[in-house]
Amino acid sequence: MITGPTFEEMLHPQTINPAIRADAVVALDADPLNPLNLYNITWRDPANRVCHIVLPPELTGVDAQIVVIYGKRFPSGSHKVGAAYSVLLEEQLLGEVDPDQHTLVWPSTGNYGIGGAFIGCRMEYDSIVVLPEEMSQERFDRISSYGARIIRTAGSESNVKEIYDEVKRLRGRDPKIRVLNQFEVMGNYRFHYHVTGNTLVELAAELQAAGIGDGKVAAYVSAMGSAGTIAAGDRLKQVWPEHKIVGLEPIQCPTLYNNGYGAHEIQGIGDKHVTWIHNVFNMDALMAIDDMDALNGLRLLWEEEGRRALARRYGLAEDMVAELAETLGISGICNIIGAIKTAKFYNFREKDIVATVATDAMERYGSVMANLRDAHGPLDEARSASIVDGVFHRAGADWILEGGREARERWHNLKYYTWVEQQGKSVAELDAQRDPDWWLAHQERIAEIDRRLLAQR
Questions:
Q1: What domains are there in the chain, each with its CATH number?
Q2: Which residues have CB under 8 Å from 187's CB, separation 6+?
Q3: Which terminus in the chain has less CB density within 10 A, N or C?
């Protein structure tokens, strides 16, 4: 069976066999469907530098250092491929799946499904991605290009129950089906806890050596889709106990904020339930972001007049504007808005680092941006300035709920309705998550999984 890197090798790609690493680096651009690209699942570039941007204060309007690590250079163009690989690798090492016997089903609202299509087909599995029909066309095109089949369910980003219903139907009719559910399977959590979390720990030290920050990450901000990415905060809080973990969701679907529901346009987050893998007892604050702010923030980088305004009116370097335009997607803009709100809410200063993530990049949203321009007309300098001022500079302390004991208990209790009533978990399993040792046990499995993989080489 085909395998790839260990968790430790994903964190430190320089520890991969040099010949394999060199061939993988070439394959990333020259041969993107080559299974060697499994060895490119890392936040670091070929020179072992973390892929990141320190945002200029001219854009953020705050003194704190807002640092974005971005997933564009991962195989498939999103860090979700790391979660998909980790989930499949663990199942394969445990003997739960076999490419000669099983069909994999990847429930998703986009990037995890794209990652699953890439990983599953590279590891020679028949793969099906189940996702809502209203996701961007670019998502469907990318999944098909990797060789997976697609089943479209009703609705948009927040219609996850419809995905679950379809997955249940598939599993019931075919005993060869194996479901790799990102919302439930702890491989997703482990990838971000170990690889994303420790990458940020190391980046903080590297930034301090370059004169940025004080060697710590004061806060980590992440919107919740599957709630895999936010698991990096669990590692950061172990390193710095005073660290703040801030979760984001759409105002249009504020499930954790006030048990809200609804459709929204921030693809990749706000899936209208609390996922099994989300350690809500570690979350210090919840913030809600308007989906139109996220869309307009990205539109500013997509349209030429918006980019010109950032350079001419606000003084951003042209190469910085170009880099932002290439590396951010809708949820990345959402995360940046949340990071600005976090910096203001906690009164962070110049030495403080607020870290966040750009899951994917502009390449996935051209059709969405074109529809927005067609509906509202093209940007000019005045409209561009209104986006900078209204979306970024004026992001404030509204729609913020601190994670006190009662709030965390409510967030945890919301898991009951999806996972016990609908998905067959027991109350005892749900109650077990209240114990910090439950999460520690899952973190400690990383070393075991790495040992199993090394033993197979």
A1: 42-76+189-402 (3.40.50.1100)
A2: 83, 86, 87, 88, 89, 90, 91
A3: C
